[in-house]
Every structure is written in C-alpha cells, then in structure tokens.
Specification:
With about 550 residues, the protein is of the alpha/beta class. It contains 18 helices and 26 strands. It folds into 3 domains: about 170 residues, Rossmann fold (3-Layer(aba) Sandwich); about 170 residues, ANL, N-terminal domain (Rossmann fold); about 100 residues, ANL, C-terminal domain (GMP Synthetase, Chain A, domain 3, 2-Layer Sandwich), CATH 3.30.300.30. About 35% of the residues lie in helices and about 25% in strands.
C-alpha cells in the first residue's frame, strides 16, 4: 500500500488499487495519519493509530465468538463511536455488515435479519426511548445467534434462544485470540469479496439487500472524496445516519481515506449542531437541504462561530438556487455540491463539480463520475437525445453485484448488458448534467429518508379494515414530502374519522415514523387503468386539487 496520501487532483485515484479492502484502508490510515485525530464522540478522542488498535480488539472478539468469513453482522444503532468500532471490527474479521434503520420497528428489523441470515447483531438500548433487542422479542430473527450491546446492558428482553453480551464482553473474549490470527484473517479478505448488504425496498415492497464489494466501495468513495475536495485535517460532522450509504461510506470511509476527523451526530438537533460546529471547528457538513435551512433561519446563528465551515454536500430533495447562494454567501461555505445516486450504484451516479455555478448545482445532479456510463432511455430501451426525458440507466464498476439471494429481482434491476435500471426519470443536458424529474418507482423522500409506497401499502393492507390502498408522496413544507394514503374501506363502520385514527395508530406500531402517512383519505374506489394498476397520477391530481 502507498505510504503517502492517495487523494489528490485526480477524480479517480483508484482507491480499489491503493487499498484493496476496507481493513487495509484502516491499517493504512493508522500509518499515514498516525497521531492525527480520527474519531471524536463526547469525551472519547481516538487517533488513527488508536482507532486501528480498537478495531482490531473488536475483530479479535468476533473471531473468538466463531465469526466465519462471509458471516453477516447486522448493526441497529445510531451514529456513535461504538458503531464505527463495531462495523470496522466486523469487516476486519471477514464479516459482511448489514445496516438497519434506527427508525425501524421490530417486524421491519426482523425481516432484514431473517433475509440477510445475520448471525450477529450489534445494537443499543435507550436511543430515542427504544430498546431495540426488546422490540425483537417474540419475532422470528432467522439465524441470529448473538446480540452485542454497543451501549447498555445485556439483561433486557430479547429474542428467545439468542445470547446477549456487551461490547466489553466481546472485546474481553478476544484477548484469547492473537494479533497474528487477526492479521491473517484480514489478509485473506479479497477486494472482490462482499463488504456489505444495504437493504433497499424498490418496487416490490419487500426490502432487498444490495451486495457491494470492498473494491467497489473503495474506488467509488475515493472518487467521491476527491471530487468533493475532502482533505487531511477536515473535521467532518456526520449527521447522515451510518445505516445509510452516505453516512457510512461518504462519511466514515471517505474520512479514513482523506485523514479527516469523524464526529458522529446521532440525531439532528440544530442547537446541538451549531454548538458542535463552533467547539469542534467543523469544516465538512453534508445533509439534506432542510439542515442548512434550519441553520440559516436559527435566531442564534449570528452568535455562534461558524467560520470553520468549508464543504457542504446536499441532495435528496429539490434544492433552491437561493439556498446554494445563501450557503456560500451567508454561511461562507467554500464548496457546495449536489449529487445523485442509489444504493444499487454504491450510492453514487453523478456529482456536481466544485467550479460549477450555483444554477447547475441547484437545478441538476451533476455529471457521471469517471468510468461510469449513464444514459437516458425510452420504454423500449433506446437511448434518447439530450434534453429528452426517460429512464436513467447506469453501467460500470459501482453497480452492485446483485441482491442477496434474489436472482429474480437482480435480473429485473440489471439487464443482460449490465445496465442498472434506476427507476428514476430524468433528462441530460448538453454538458452531461442529470436532472431528475420523476420517479418510476413512486418513491418519495421524507426529510432525507426514502419512503417506498409499495412497502407502506403492504403493511397497511394487513389492517383488517383496509380493502385496498395506494400511497403517494405529497409536498410538505417542513419535511419536503410526506405520505398520503388513499384507502378503500372493507366495512362501513366505524366512522371515517375513527377509522383513520385507528389505522394511523396501527401504522405507527408497524413501521418507521417517516413511512407513516401523515394523512389518510377514504375513497370508494381507486382509479385503475385497463390492466388494473392504480393510476397514482390521478391521485396526485386529486390531492393537488384538494390543497390548491
């Protein structure tokens, strides 16, 4: 491995060739950046060398507990130092990490544990009032054998037949495993081995695990970090959740590549974020547009030192040109970028560049990253001219290896020529900038979180009073978009008002808060086409008419 920094002027510094695997990246960063600060979480401050040592302690613990190369290790926890150590430790031991959304309810988490066949789960109790292991009690958790508590005790409720231990217990058991054994296991990991399963819902309503290799991840996010301009000494406030590709890869892994300090933020709270920017001299602050808008309108903004801010990366919603200008002029960001990607493309398809004007950054998602082919096609698969709207498809090294143990869905997503069909509709201008105009999959974005109607509809249909249902995304001033459920009732009683409240209560018990529809409309029948498919555009028109 190189002994000097890898990121530089090249947009494609080939992180896959420089490091090969994520454990190699951790070791390289420990050598290259040694005593520089790598991770800050409250009173905990670890240098890159100390981080690598702590990661090895966790890896040895997993080896002591019988982790076999390729075993899935799930993480259901908020952004924190323990998440970092747990994930990197599992990877060093040869594990494949599976991330779970912290807003999941028990049945949602159990489904992913079953379908990933995870043997280990790292989790917490007490986050936002939730005890995650207790939420799994009585549910089928598949092959799960052990729960490692990253924070909290091991004495609470949990699934029957599953052992529970603390992170300290795991590390202590690893004392019986030599550093040599840990290094040998790490050396066996190949660049093409799967490093993670990130679950995404897509059109079927059933989450699917997108498989990505070490090499794909390293090359993609070395490119991302180079284009953004992340550099040694940057202090990176990671608000984007680690369970998402952005927080984990564009946050944690990109920082290891650049020599930046990671400061994990478990929940976005504007007062806390302002304080952290000032005290920790934050220079890198990505997030959805609402994050920056919250800072701009905050009454204490001018009382807080925000002069350290340098880089901002946003997306996940429409970005007003005025916001980009305000971020540059009022918050003094040197660089503001937008980008586009999806889990199946390792998280990145296109990015704006640092010298792009505000209008391009706000109204487009930039150009394809190097060595990734992107085109716009019509329903028959023919490439369209620049400016014509069609489906965005992409082909190249970042495209996932497939969905875990789901060849049928993989074949639907990636065609015989290797093109990933994104399900997003867009146009491409003369310079190659993508403009996302619609979503074939009807996905909508709630405060930065992707919500999939098919998944929500499948859960709502489980309520006995629902005969049929269709969910659409509708505009919301605070969240960007929220769900609206159009429901055909199975019975006439109780009243619509009581039924709506009961259905909302059911939804809140069964799904993450961002998925819960903010409104329920009872209708006699759903608009259907000749094939019996719901015409959601008619529902959008109806909603627009009701709210205009």
């Amino acid at each position: 491995m190189p002994a000097t920094p890898v990121l530089g002027e090249s947009e494609d510094p080939r992180g896959d060739l420089a490091w090969g695997t994520i454990p190699n990246l951790v070791e390289w960063a420990a050598t290259c950046f040694a005593d520089s600060e790598a991770l800050v979480d409250g009173d905990l401050r670890l240098s890159f060398a100390e981080l690598a040592h702590a990661v090895d302690d966790v890896a040895r613990g997993f080896l002591a507990h019988g982790l076999v190369a390729g075993d899935r290790v799930a993480l259901w926890a908020p952004n924190c130092a323990e998440w970092v150590l747990g994930a990197l430790g599992a990877l060093r031991a040869g594990g494949v990490i599976v991330t779970l959304n912290t807003r999941f309810k028990g049945p949602e988490a159990a489904y992913i544990l079953q379908n990933s066949r995870a043997r280990f789960l790292m989790s917490v109790e007490g986050f936002l009032g939730f005890d995650y292991p207790a939420m799994l009690e009585g549910l089928d958790v598949g092959d799960l054998e052990e729960i490692i508590m990253l924070k909290g005790t091991s004495g609470g409720a949990h699934p029957e037949g599953v052992a529970v231990l603390t992170l300290d217990d795991l590390i202590q058991s690893g004392e019986a495993v030599s550093a040599k054994d840990s290094a040998e296991r790490s050396a066996l990991i190949q660049p093409g081995d799967v490093s993670d399963l990130i679950f995404t819902s897509g059109t079927t309503g059933h989450p699917k695990g997108a498989m990505t290799s070490h090499a794909q991840t390293l090359r993609t996010f070395a490119t991302w970090a180079s284009i953004v301009g992340l550099r040694q000494g940057d202090r990176y406030l990671v608000v984007n959740p680690f369970f998402h590709t952005f927080g984990y890869k564009a946050g944690l892994l990109a920082s290891l590549m650049a020599g930046a300090t990671v400061i994990p933020e478990p929940v976005f709270d504007v007062d806390r974020v302002l304080e952290t920017i000032a005290t920790e001299k934050i220079s890198m602050l990505p997030g959805p547009p609402t994050l920056y808008q919250s800072i701009l309108v905050h009454p204490r903004r001018h009382d807080v030192d925000l002069s350290s801010l340098r880089l901002g990366v946003t997306g996940a919603a429409v970005v007003p040109v005025e916001l980009v200008i305000a971020m540059r002029e009022e918050l003094q960001f040197e660089t503001v970028l937008t980008a586009y990607g999806l889990t199946e493309s390792s998280g990145v398809v296109s990015m704006c560049r640092r010298d792009d004007p505000p209008e391009i950054i706000a109204t487009t998602s930039g150009r394809a990253i190097p060595d990734l082919d992107v085109k716009i096609i019509d329903p028959e698969g023919n490439e369209l001219e620049r400016g014509e709207a069609g489906e965005i498809v992409a082909r190249g090294y970042p495209i996932m290896q497939g969905y875990f143990q789901d060849a049928e869905e993989t074949a639907k997503a990636i065609d015989a020529e290797g093109w990933l069909h994104t399900g997003d509709v867009g146009t491409m201008d003369a310079q190659g900038n993508l403009v996302i105009t619609d979503r074939l999959k009807d996905m909508f974005v709630v405060g930065g979180f992707n919500a999939y109607p098919a998944e929500i509809e499948a859960i709502l249909r489980g309520y006995e009073g629902v005969a049929n249902v269709a969910v659409i995304g509708v505009p919301d001033e605070r969240m960007g978009e929220v769900g609206c459920a159009y429901v055909v009732r199975a019975t006439a009683t109780p009243s619509d008002e009581v039924f709506q409240q009961e259905l909302l209560s059911f939804a809140k018990e069964q799904m993450a808060n961002y998925k819960v529809p903010r409104s329920i409309v009872c209708i006699d029948e759903l608009p259907l086409n000749a094939s019996g498919k719901v015409l959601k555009r008619e529902l959008r028109k109806e909603h627009k008419g009701e709210t205009s």
